């Protein structure tokens, strides 16, 4: 079974056409199982009030679908994010955006909305992290008669029932059971949206953006990174105040040149590891202006 994570930042109606609505927080999740393909679709629930959901959804995705029906600033900012991260992109053919695309480094397919599902059936995600086990959490809650539940994505390796993984706090978390697409499964590979019944920790121990993995990934407020700034931003980032999105985490931050790297000081501690990608966000447009890869924690 192939799992593909899709971000649709600028057209909730397209997400509704492709999948069935599931859980909602700052991101609305849609799900679909078609033949041997499992789709999980992320679309921001309220861009104006919770813009951070835009970079979060793009970061978590394998491929990004952008509607060309209204090529506004959100469309452009999403293109910047995809270009910086090297994401695969599908753009709907509802209007001609070829001039807008000319300035971006993108692997891009232009399709009619009705052709997207067939394209995804043959789509192969880029290589994903193997070996180590990791789940990025977006929600935790109790269920009467079941216990404490985590919702998230397997983002490295393959997790299995009865695995013992470590929370950022150092607590050992036993996976009692795994659900995917409302079905009990014994294991879940990279790209799978999972619901985990756990033991060893309680739901209140978890914040959105937390991680469980086979090695402890602590929450930190400072790290160094290789950073690329979009030429469209035209800014000097040394000493800049901005925000950072990493996985399902978002925090205000300041940037400081540190030799060839950039030192990031986050206002809120977030769980990150060497090699993690992130996006940089500012208040004025284009709001997404840079991306980085963590080099030292």
Offer a quick outline of the entry.
With 297 residues, the chain is mainly β.
Compute the number of structural domains: 3
The order of strands across the largest sheet is 2-3-4-1-5-6-7
Estimate the global geometry from the Cα principal axes.
globular
Indicate the mean pLDDT.
95
Q: Describe it for me?
A:
This protein has 297 residues and is mostly beta strands. It folds into three domains: 2-122, P-loop containing nucleotide triphosphate hydrolases (Rossmann fold, 3-Layer(aba) Sandwich), CATH 3.40.50.300; 134-213, Elongation Factor Tu (Ef-tu), domain 3 (Beta Barrel), CATH 2.40.30; 219-296, Beta Barrel (Elongation Factor Tu (Ef-tu), domain 3). It is built from five helices and 22 strands. The protein has helices spanning 12-18, 53-60, 73-85, 98-101, 116-122, and strands spanning 2-7, 20-24, 27-34, 37-44, 63-66, 88-92, 107-111, 134-143, 147-156, 159-160, 164-167, 172-180, 183-185, 187-188, 193-199, 211-213, 219-229, 241-246, 249-258, 261-271, 277-281, 288-296. Helix 2 (53-60) runs parallel beside helix 3. The longest helix has 13 residues, at 73-85.
What order do the helices and strands come in, and which of them pair?
Elements lengths: L1 E6 L4 H7 L1 E5 L2 E8 L2 E8 L8 H8 L2 E4 L6 H13 L2 E5 L5 H4 L5 E5 L4 H7 L11 E10 L3 E10 L2 E2 L3 E4 L4 E9 L2 E3 L1 E2 L4 E7 L11 E3 L5 E11 L11 E6 L2 E10 L2 E11 L5 E5 L6 E9 L1
Parallel strand pairs: 1-4, 1-5, 5-6, 6-7
Antiparallel strand pairs: 2-3, 3-4, 8-9, 8-16, 9-15, 10-14, 11-12, 11-16, 12-13, 12-15, 17-20, 17-22, 18-19, 18-21, 19-20, 21-22
């Amino acid at each position: 079974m192939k799992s593909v994570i899709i971000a649709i930042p600028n057209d909730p109606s397209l997400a509704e056409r492709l999948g069935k609505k599931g859980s909602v927080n700052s991101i609305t999740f849609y799900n679909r199982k078609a033949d041997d393909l499992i789709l999980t679709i992320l679309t921001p629930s309220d861009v104006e009030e919770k813009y951070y959901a835009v970079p979060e959804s793009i970061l978590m995705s394998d491929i990004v679908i952008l509607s060309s029906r209204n090529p506004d600033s959100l469309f452009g900012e999403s293109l910047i994010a995809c270009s910086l991260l090297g994401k695969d992109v599908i753009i709907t053919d509802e209007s001609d955006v070829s001039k807008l695309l000319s300035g971006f480094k993108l692997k891009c397919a232009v399709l009619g909305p009705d052709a997207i599902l067939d394209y995804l059936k043959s789509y192969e995600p880029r290589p994903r992290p193997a070996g180590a086990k990791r789940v990025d959490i977006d929600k935790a809650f109790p269920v009467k008669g079941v216990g404490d539940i985590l919702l998230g994505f397997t983002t490295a390796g393959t997790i299995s029932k009865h695995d013992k993984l470590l929370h950022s706090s150092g607590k050992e978390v036993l996976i009692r059971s795994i659900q995917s697409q409302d079905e009990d499964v014994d294991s879940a590979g990279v790209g799978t949206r999972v619901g985990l019944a756990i033991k060893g920790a309680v739901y209140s121990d978890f914040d959105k953006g937390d991680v469980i993995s086979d090695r402890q990934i602590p929450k930190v407020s400072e790290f160094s990174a290789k950073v690329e700034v979009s030429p469209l931003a035209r800014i000097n980032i040394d000493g800049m105040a901005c925000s950072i999105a990493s996985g399902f985490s978002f925090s205000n931050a300041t940037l400081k040149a540190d030799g060839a790297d950039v030192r990031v000081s986050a206002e809120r501690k977030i769980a990150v590891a060497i090699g993690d990608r992130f996006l940089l966000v500012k208040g004025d447009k284009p709001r997404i202006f840079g991306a980085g890869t963590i080099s030292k924690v």
